[in-house]
TrEMBL record:
Protein name (database record): DUF3800 domain-containing protein
Entries under InterPro entries matching the protein: DUF3800
Length: 239
């Protein structure tokens, strides 16, 4: 019988607003056994120190630059080498194709469905999960409670034993959330077909070299657990 374990899941999203002018939107989660999170966070802080960065420096996709590319590539290497650390992502290549009215749903309804779709492969009985979300805006509290409700109900986890917690954290206080932001940024950048930043392009190259040339733009195989991506296309739901 499998011994139940507790996992921490660090979630973020990119270009998730319906009318922000960006065609691509993405969700992603970095996760690991809860008892490994402190050691991994300390390893990231050590990496920051080795590259001359303050321990409270917030690593994030928007800060990737030629001056810091060596650090960010080292952070990608840390993710790839750490067996306890995994990523699950969901990418919507063209949100202009969404037709919420046809499915009698709001954008918010669909947003929560996509969050569950992204997270569902992570959840495995009899394990337990604590989910941490990046603080985005003043609506974060209600959105967090709603997501917990959606996840628990979808898993028939009415006593909330499997999904123990859905909680907001600030990304500058969580190294694991910073890794999630970096990987989601790489995923979004690749699916937008961008090549304008040599430093950001280098991160995509490193991931493709280690994980496969199409790892950022195609749906992963069912058995892929290190870096698992779903490319969700609206037309598939309409056909």
């Amino acid at each position: 019988m499998t011994e139940p374990r507790l996992f921490n899941v660090y979630c973020d999203e990119s270009c998730h607003l319906e009318h922000d002018g960006v065609p691509v939107m993405a969700w992603g989660a970095v996760y690991c056994p809860a008892d490994a999170s402190r050691a991994i966070s300390e390893a990231v802080r050590t990496l920051k120190a080795e590259h001359g960065l303050a321990h409270n420096f917030e690593a994030k996709w928007t800060k990737v630059s030629p001056a810091k590319v060596d650090f960010y590539l080292a952070l990608i290497n840390l993710f790839l080498a750490e067996d306890r650390l995994r990523f699950r992502g969901l990418i919507v290549p063209d949100k202009a194709r969404l037709n919420h009215a046809r499915f009698d749903q709001s954008h918010d309804d669909w947003y929560y469905k996509m969050y569950f779709t992204m997270l569902r492969p992570i959840f495995t009985a009899p394990h337990r999960y604590r989910i941490y979300l990046d603080v985005k805006d003043t609506r974060g509290g209600p959105k967090t409670r709603k997501l917990h409700e959606v996840l628990a109900n979808s898993l028939y986890d009415f006593d909330r034993q499997a999904i123990q917690r859905v909680q907001q954290v600030r990304s500058h206080e969580s190294e694991l959330l910073q890794i999630a932001d970096l990987l989601i940024g790489a995923l979004t950048y690749a699916n937008r077909g961008l090549t304008t930043s040599p430093a950001k392009t280098a991160i995509g190259i490193r991931l493709r070299e280690r994980l496969g040339q199409n790892v950022l733009i195609r749906t992963s195989t069912f058995t892929e657990t290190k870096f698992n991506v779903l490319v969700w296309r609206a037309r598939e739901a309409a056909e």
